[in-house]
């Protein structure tokens, strides 16, 4: 029986409660607590879902209408808004007429930290205007365009369901058997997380340390003596092809889905091409 081990810190996930009062009355939606306090502060000690991040952007926009504009530039595969916030002091000129910096986070589904940093940047700029001389000077003269959730659908799969996918969940038939996404990782032990398991395998690249069997070290050269294992994410062979987790959710890599090698550095004499 494979053993399960995890070193993952679990972020909290907020839930919206819906209640119905009486048979003939319309449903009453419980009041959602604001994620942005009246003073502009936010709890930065957790990760936020795509929907919660959208709420944070809209609450910031209501709190700082003279510094912000919200732009919906499209929709995700699941219909979630792709929102960009423009930040500048509009009293000194519109964002479109100022030099600007574009920032996004979370182009890869599991890059939750990138989305958190981009959202934090929004709060830092808005809360710092008028009190931080550098921020005030920047927003008077420059503009920022910030898109915290580049990939909202993929981000929610990684955060809420612990699925591992590089980018968008748009279905792709990765094993070319005519069916897309039919063999993803699964939470076998029901603990709410899809962790890495070890499977005894004499040809495996991982070996348990004799003095600490719970610790595995990678040893493809067979230089360490001990019981050998291969590792994989929790899952089973759903499609019966003899492989496990070979056709997970999605497959399109948005960070490779546009022209590359555009950096100026590789055009410099003597530099190697990227």
Number of strands: 11
Strand content: 15-25%
Low-confidence runs (pLDDT<50, min 5 residues)? 1-25
Shape: elongated
What is the chains' assembly state?
single chain
What gyration radius follows from the Cα positions, in whole Å? 24 Å
Round the mean pLDDT to the nearest integer and report it: 82
Which class of the domain at 47-171 and 252-266 in CATH terms?
Alpha Beta
Strand order of the largest sheet: 1-8-11-9-10
SSE succession: EEEHEEEHHEHEEEE
Number of helices: 4
How many strands, what sense, and barrel or not for the largest sheet? 5 strands, antiparallel
Architecture of the domain at 47-171 and 252-266, CATH level 2? 3-Layer(aba) Sandwich
Distance between the termini: 45 Å
CATH superfamily of the domain at 47-171 and 252-266: Zn peptidases
Primary descriptors:
4 helices, 274 residues, elongated, Aminopeptidase, 11 strands, four-stranded mixed β-sheet, alpha+beta
Structure, described:
The protein is α+β, with helices and mostly antiparallel strands and 274 residues long. It has a domain at 47-171 and 252-266: Zn peptidases (Aminopeptidase, 3-Layer(aba) Sandwich), CATH 3.40.630.10. 18% of the residues lie in helices and 20% in strands. It is built from four helices and eleven strands; from the N terminus they run βββαβββααβαββββ. The strands form three sheets. It has a five-stranded antiparallel sheet, with no helix packed on it. Strand 9 and strand 10 (212-218) form a beta hairpin. Helix 2 packs across helix 3 (133-141).
